[in-house]
Amino acid sequence: MDFKKTIRRVSTLIVASLTTLAATHVQADDKVYRLKLAETWGPNTPILGDASKNMAKLAKEMSNGRLIIRIDSANKHKAPLGVFDMVKSGQYDLGHSSSYYWKGKVPNTLYFSSMPFGMTTMEQYSWFYHGGGLELMQQVYSPHNLLSFPGGNSDIQMGGWFKKEINTIDDLKGLKMRIPGFAGEVLAQVGAKPTNIAPGELYTSLERGTIDALEWVGPAFDLRMGFQKIAPYYYTAWHEPGSETQFLVNKKVWQELPDDLKIILETSFRVAAFDMYTQALHENANSWSKMSSEYPDIKVRSFPPEVINALKQANGELLKQQAANDELAKEILDSQASYLNKMREWTTISLQAYLNEQTN
Amino acid sequence: MDFKKTIRRVSTLIVASLTTLAATHVQADDKVYRLKLAETWGPNTPILGDASKNMAKLAKEMSNGRLIIRIDSANKHKAPLGVFDMVKSGQYDLGHSSSYYWKGKVPNTLYFSSMPFGMTTMEQYSWFYHGGGLELMQQVYSPHNLLSFPGGNSDIQMGGWFKKEINTIDDLKGLKMRIPGFAGEVLAQVGAKPTNIAPGELYTSLERGTIDALEWVGPAFDLRMGFQKIAPYYYTAWHEPGSETQFLVNKKVWQELPDDLKIILETSFRVAAFDMYTQALHENANSWSKMSSEYPDIKVRSFPPEVINALKQANGELLKQQAANDELAKEILDSQASYLNKMREWTTISLQAYLNEQTN
C-alpha cells in the first residue's frame, strides 16, 4: 500500500534526520546543572569570599551556562562552621572553607591548611599537586562522602600583634594571647595562655589588657581592625606559613556530573585558588604599604632563635603524639616532613638566597 | 485526503521534534576547532614541553572535544626562534615560547620573561594579574597581530657554574662566560666577556677553558648536563629570578573562537602555567637533592655585596637608557619598579623573614 510505504519512508526520514542531528551533537549534554555552595565567610568578605565568586563565574562561562553555582554566605545559611556537615549530608552540593576547622570532627583534616614551621604556600602547592598531598587529602575526606580541593591561599599569616617585645622564652610564659586552634596548643606547651575571642571583641580586649597579644591574619585583613594603634610589635610568621582554604564537593553530586563538567569544575577550583593567592599577595603588599606609612611606629620583629627553637620543639612533640595515635596521621605527617625537607634545601639556595643577597 | 493529512501531520511532528531538539541544544556550537601550536622546544622537553601538552589536554577535555590543539615541536617546524613570526603570520594559530627571545624584533618584549634583580615568580604573577602587567604585555604584542599570556614559570635560574670563586668585582673582569641576552649585556658593563655557545658544545667549552663560567637553568635542567663535574662553584640567582614562558595566539584566530572556547583556552593557559611552575619547583628540589648527594663537593655561593651592587648599578643604567628611548618601555619599567618596590617590602617581612628565622 502506498500509504504504508509513504509512512515508512517518512519514518525513515525522521529517524535519519534525528540521527544526523544527534550525531552533530553527539557529545553535548545540554542539561543545566544547578549547584548550591555554602561558604564559611560572610557576604562580601574580600579575598576569601572572592574565591567562590571567581570560581562560579568561570564554571558558568566555560560550560556555556550548563553549570550554574549559587553561593550562600554565612548570613544566609547561619552555620559558618557547619559547611563540612552540610555538604556531607547533601544539604549543599559544594562548600568553601578551611580544612583545619574540622579537626574536632575529623582530626586528620588539620594537616591540609597550614602547619606551624611547615611548608610555604608554593612548597605546599607543589606537595599537593606533585608530592601526593592531594591524594592524602582525598583519603581523609572520602569516608565522609566528600571530595576536597585546594581552595585558595590567603598568604603567610603574620605572627600577630604584641604589646611587649618577646626576647626570651620567659616572655611567653603566662602571656595571654588570642590564637585559636593547633598553634594555640603549641604556644600552651611553652607556657603561654592561648584563648579564643570573637572578632568583634578583639580590639577592646587588647586595648584593656584582657589579652597581651593576638594573631589575626596579615596586613590585608589586619589594617581595618586597627590593632597597630594599641600594640606596637608586629611579629613575623611562624604558625601559618601559607594558609590554604578548600573547596568541598558532595561525592554523589560529583559522580552525577558529566565528565566535561567535572573537569570544568575542578579547573575552576584550581584557577580560583591560584587567583586568590595572587590577590592575597597583592592586597597584603598594598595594605602593608598603607599601614607602614600611616603608622611609622610599628615595630616588625621576628622571634629570637631561642623562642623559635622552643616553639619548634613543642610543635614537633605534639605532632609526634598525633602520629603515634593514628596511622593515616603518621603517613600524612611523614609525607609533609620529607617533602618539606627536600624542598626547603632548594628554597634555601634559590628563593631565600636571592632575597637575602639583595638585603645583605 | 487522508494521505495528505497524514503527511501534513507527520511533517508537523518532524518540525516539532526538530524544534524541540534544537531548543534543548540552543547554546551548543558543536563545531570542532582545530588549532596548531608551534613550540620553541624540542620534542619531549621536560617541564617546558609539558606546559603545552597539559594545556591542550585540558582544553580538549573541558570543551568536550570541540577544541583540538596539535602541537608541533621544534624538530617538526625547524624554527625554534621563529615562533613569533609563524603565529603572527597565521602559519600557526598558537605558540609556546619565551617573550625575551623576541627582543631583537620588538625590544619591549624583553620585559615579560624575567629581569635581573627583578620580581620573583609570585611577585611577577601578582604584577601580571593584579598590577597591570598582563595589559602592558598585550599592548606590546597587539600591533603584531598577537595576544600573549603567561605560559608557565621555570622557577628561579641559578647564577651559573664557575671554575673560580668570585670575591670581588675584579674577578669578573675578563671572565669568559656563556650568558646570552640582556643579562650578558649587564655582565659586559662590569667588564666580563659574555658569549653564547650552542648547548651541545657547552660542556667541552667549560672543560677546556674556552669559557670560565656558564649559566644554564637550574638543577632540573643542569643535572644531566654534568657541569658540576668540572666547575665546583654553583652561584645563586641574580639575572632571572623567575623565568616566565608565554603562550602566543594569533589575534584573528582568537576572534573567531566562540566565547566559551575563548575562556576555556585562556583558562587552560593559566592552569598549564601554574602547573609548570609547581612542576619546576618539584623537579628542581628533586634534582638538587640528587645532585648535592651525588656531588657533595659542589660549593654553593652567592656573589658578595660589592659584586651584587655593581651588577645592580649596571642593570639600572641599561634600563634607564631603554626607558629614555621608548615611551612604552618607560611605562613598563616604571610599572615593574613601583610594583616590585611595594611588593618586596611585604615579601621581606613575610616570606623572607619566615625562611630566615628558621635558619638563623
UniProtKB/TrEMBL annotation, chains A, B:
One Pfam family named in its UniProt record: DctP
Domain of life: Bacteria
GO cellular component, one term: tripartite ATP-independent periplasmic transporter complex
Single GO MF descriptor: metal ion binding
Coiled-coil regions listed: none
Annotated InterPro entries: DctP_fam, SBP_TakP-like, TRAP_DctP_sf
Binding site for substrate: 157, 178, 215, 240
Binding residue positions for Na(+): 216
Signal peptide from the UniProt entry: 1-28
One of the GO BP terms on file: transmembrane transport
UniProt keyword list: Metal-binding, Signal
NCBIfam families, alphabetized: TRAP_S1
Protein name: TRAP transporter substrate-binding protein
